[in-house]
Amino acid sequence: MRRAPPQRELRARERRGGETRAHTPVDTQSVAHLAAECENAGMTERIARWHAAWEARDVERILALYADDATHASPLVRQFCPEAPEPVLRGRERIGEYFRRALGRFTWLRFEIVSVTEDTERSAFEYRRHSNVDGDRPAHVLELLEWRDGLIVAVRVFHFS
Fold first, then answer.
1. Which residues of 95-124 are buried (b: 16+ CB within 10 A; e: fewer)?
2. Residues 108-143: pLDDT tens digits?
3. Which single residue of 9, 111, 148, 152 could bond 5 by disulfide (Cβ 3.0 to 4.6 Å)?
């Protein structure tokens, strides 16, 4: 198992524009650099796409990874969608609404991938989320993803203290 970049590299990346990064056209050199980082962290191409979309905070790009009938389960669902009857969202449209609400609180967002375990239908990956919301206490998260035809069909998110 390969490890994610060290903390000092993540902090250097943040100083290079983490707080001022706006939605801009894709920089192919940055994408190539991110792909190399992902390979070094043991990520597959599909987790690398997830990683890049989330760090860009681009909801449409994130949703492009999801099947129309996908589900997303997280204890944070009710925090951002109090009208949800349960902490599980069904359908890409509803999931997108949640992502828009949740992502609105971030001015910068970086993921330190700790480990990835996958087979053809499932991915389990652990990461530390670094952001303006988390300050110097990055969130420790585990996500379990199920895939069908290259798209995410189910996500279960676990947050640790």
1. bbbbbeebeeeeebbbbbbbbbebeeeebe
2. 999 999 999 999 999 999 999 999 999 999 999 999
3. 9
The token pair at 100 is 């828009």
Contacts 24+ apart (CB under 8 A), 50-53: 50/145, 50/152, 51/111, 51/113
pLDDT for 10 beyond 90: no
Strands 139-148 and 151-160: antiparallel
**For the chain, counts of helices (H) and of strands (E):** 6, 6
Please indicate, yes or no, if residue 60 is contained in any of the structural domains.
yes
Q: What is the pLDDT of residues 61-106, one digit of tens each?
A: 999 999 999 999 999 999 999 999 999 999 999 999 999 999 999 9
- 77, part of any domain: yes
Read off the CATH number of the domain in which 99 is found: 3.10.450.50
| pTM score of the predicted model | 0.73
**1 belongs to a structural domain:** no
In a domain, 147, yes or no: yes
Alpha-carbon gap, residue 92 to 104, rounded angstroms: 18
* Start-to-end C-alpha separation, the chain: 24
Give the domain extent around 141. 7-18+26-160
